[in-house]
Design goal:
The complex is a heterodimer of chains A (455) and B (90). Chain A is α/β, with parallel strands linked by helices. In chain A, 44% of the residues lie in helices and 17% in strands. Chain A has a domain of 158 residues: Anaerobic Ribonucleotide-triphosphate Reductase Large Chain, CATH 3.20.70. Chain A contains 15 helices and 13 strands. In chain A, the strands form two sheets. In chain A, strands 1, 2, 3, 4, 5, 6, 7, 8, 9, 10 and 13 form an eleven-stranded mixed beta sheet that branches. Chain A has a two-stranded antiparallel sheet with strand order 11-12. In chain A, helix 6 links the parallel strand 3 and strand 4. The longest helix of chain A is centred in the middle third of the chain and has 30 residues. The N and C termini of chain A lie far apart (51 Å). Helix content of chain B is 37%, strand content 39%. Chain B is built from three helices and four strands, in the order E-H-E-E-H-E-H. In chain B, helix 1 runs antiparallel to helix 2. Classes of the chains: A alpha/beta (455), B alpha+beta (90). At the A-B interface, helix 1, helix 3 and helix 9 of A face strand 1, strand 2, strand 3, helix 2 and strand 4 of B.
């Protein structure tokens, strides 16, 4: 039987160390919503989302109450809209109509975000893919809850440099269309390499075409719990004990996610997909991945040793989490967003952390350059160069990488931008000023790396 | 059986157990196990109860216990047992 100390340990994690389930994300296939009429397609999409997800929020809240565990977000991911809208959307405005439908459906079912305003163009762009990508700035301006993502590369296909170059422009335009809200639109837009089909986290969630009709994916969290447990270790504890401690903690955190996922799946009558074993920070004090790195022994995140410490952390989280869940997927790893992590913000302000160091860190953790505010006058070609670098890291290392940078129009290095809520705030970081125009303007594709040919 | 864990933590005063047990009895909740001690001057109690035959829904029970806790100056939580089993047992 369960004993008092175990019960108190769980409740301390929840009450004092920010243990929560970050998101229950329902993936919904919209493939059967396509028609040749934009109006009819929008109606089908709205009806299907409401049919599947109308009780998602209520169910999430009931589970949260019964187990006493906060479930921070309830979200929806849908089939990449470039595919759904391919047969009816003839202009960018047609795609924006679908974006607005998604927004309305999300508002009506009460979820926090809806992801899947997406295109997967790692090898080439269809006409519809390109229209959707070009519609992103307008869609981000005219919607509130819609998140967008574009996959521009993969280990199997190489990098679509035409798409990379185009995304440089699209990010700049999105910053411009949402400049009144500190270019917030860019916080809802992410560019991927090796994007997973079952990611429950925003802004990059979409419901891949290989997925079932509907699915429940759950993202766990808990950087605060890992930090507290590491801080309680005696000073000078060796790596063996350190790693075992992280693993055990990750196991416990993930088990809660597994329980919530199974309950949500059962109550909603929708199959369980995966648990995403991610350490996702929030701006709350103590709920920080950077603080874990400091607890491991760095003065500040960004100091020499940061990449090794992060590699260790990421690996132990996976090793502990994998046994706790029957199916693991999504991004699964430590997130290192800047604006959403107080420890990262402090490291940037102290001059310890630069974009270049963050880039190195993305080689060993999940995702990539995330929620980084850069000067509004950064050229589109430079942003394309940053995307190409991240995509290359993902392609060669057979992992997911991503870029979510926010060129804040009208602001420069040293100024602060406030996004609010879970998106946090960020000091604007300097970007290397040397040009890469000739490189990114070449056009075409970077071929897949030799080690992708495994057949 | 629908096993639920009730934890009561706070400053020790007269009648905490009585108040909680009375409330549970009024709502037809059967107590299966009680474990109580004073940890570092704090009253700490864990009860395992069966709410299968309770005449109120879970949310109402939880809110009622929170109110009892408030009146006694202690923190009362009411959670389904599974979360603890999942986390601490393989």
């Amino acid at each position: 039987m369960i004993n008092v100390s175990e019960v108190l340990e769980t409740n301390k994690m929840i009450d004092q160390e920010h243990l929560d389930v970050r998101t229950i994300t329902m993936g919904i296939s919209l493939l059967d919503c396509s028609t040749e009429s934009v109006l009819q397609t929008c109606q089908n999409i709205y009806d299907k989302i409401l049919r599947y997800a109308s009780s998602l929020v209520r169910t999430g809240e009931a589970i949260s109450q019964e187990y006493g565990i906060p479930i921070v977000n309830k979200r929806i991911s849908v089939t990449p809209v470039a595919i759904v809208g391919a047969s009816c959307c003839k202009t960018t405005h047609d795609f924006v109509k679908i974006a607005r439908t998604l927004d309305r459906a999300a508002q009506d079912v009460g979820v926090n975000f809806i992801g899947g305003y997406s295109a997967t163009v790692q090898k080439g762009m269809t006409r519809a893919d390109e229209l959707l990508i070009r519609s992103i700035p307008e869609a981000m301006k005219r919607t509130e809850l819609v998140c967008s993502s574009v996959n521009v590369g993969s280990t199997k296909t190489g990098i679509n440099m035409d798409a990379v170059r185009l995304m440089g422009d699209v990010i700049k335009e999105t910053a411009m269309t949402t400049k009144d809200s500190d270019s917030l639109g860019c916080a809802k837009l992410v560019v991927f390499c090796n994007a997973p089909d079952d990611n429950p986290f925003m802004a990059g969630a979409f419901h891949g075409v290989s997925e079932a009709e509907a699915i429940i994916n759950v993202g766990v969290s808990g950087p605060g719990v890992v930090k507290h447990v590491l801080e309680s270790l005696p000073e000078g504890t060796n790596f063996e004990v350190l790693c075992e401690t992280i693993k055990k903690t990750a196991f416990k955190i993930t088990r809660v996610g597994q329980l919530v996922a199974q309950e949500a799946s059962r109550r909603l009558g929708v199959p369980f997909g995966i648990i995403d074993l991610s350490l996702a920070p929030t701006p709350a004090i103590g709920d920080s991945v950077a603080d874990i790195l400091q607890a491991i022994g760095l003065e500040r995140t960004g100091a020499p040793g940061t990449t090794a410490a992060l590699a260790l952390l990421n690996d132990q989280v996976k090793k502990g989490g994998v046994m706790a869940s029957s199916y693991v997927g999504g991004l699964s790893g430590a997130f290192i967003p800047v604006s959403e992590d107080q420890g990262m913000i402090d490291a940037v302000n102290a001059g310890a952390l630069t974009i270049e160091k963050l880039e190195a860190m993305t080689c060993v953790c999940s995702v990539g350059l995330d929620m980084i505010a850069i000067p509004g006058d950064t050229p589109a070609t430079t942003i394309a160069g940053i995307i190409a670098d991240e995509a290359a890291i993902g392609m060669v290392n057979q992992k997911t990488t991503a870029v979510r940078v926010i060129p804040v129009i009208g602001k420069g290095v040293g100024e602060v931008v406030e996004f609010g809520g879970l998106l946090g705030y960020a000091p604007i970081m300097p970007v290397n000023r040397f040009a890469c125009d000739i490189f990114v303007n070449r056009g075409g594709r970077i071929p897949a790396p030799i080690h992708s040919f495994k057949n | 059986m629908n096993r639920t864990v009730i934890t009561v933590v706070g400053k020790d005063t007269v009648g905490i157990i009585a108040a909680v047990c009375t409330y549970l009895a009024e709502n037809n909740v059967n107590i299966l196990d009680i474990n109580q001690s004073i940890l570092q001057d704090f009253f700490t109690m864990m009860m395992i109860v069966d709410i299968n035959n309770s005449n109120v829904p879970f949310s109402e029970l939880r809110d009622g216990l929170t109110a009892v806790g408030k009146s006694k100056g202690v923190d009362i939580k009411c959670q389904k047992e599974e979360i603890f089993n999942q986390m601490h047992r393989i």
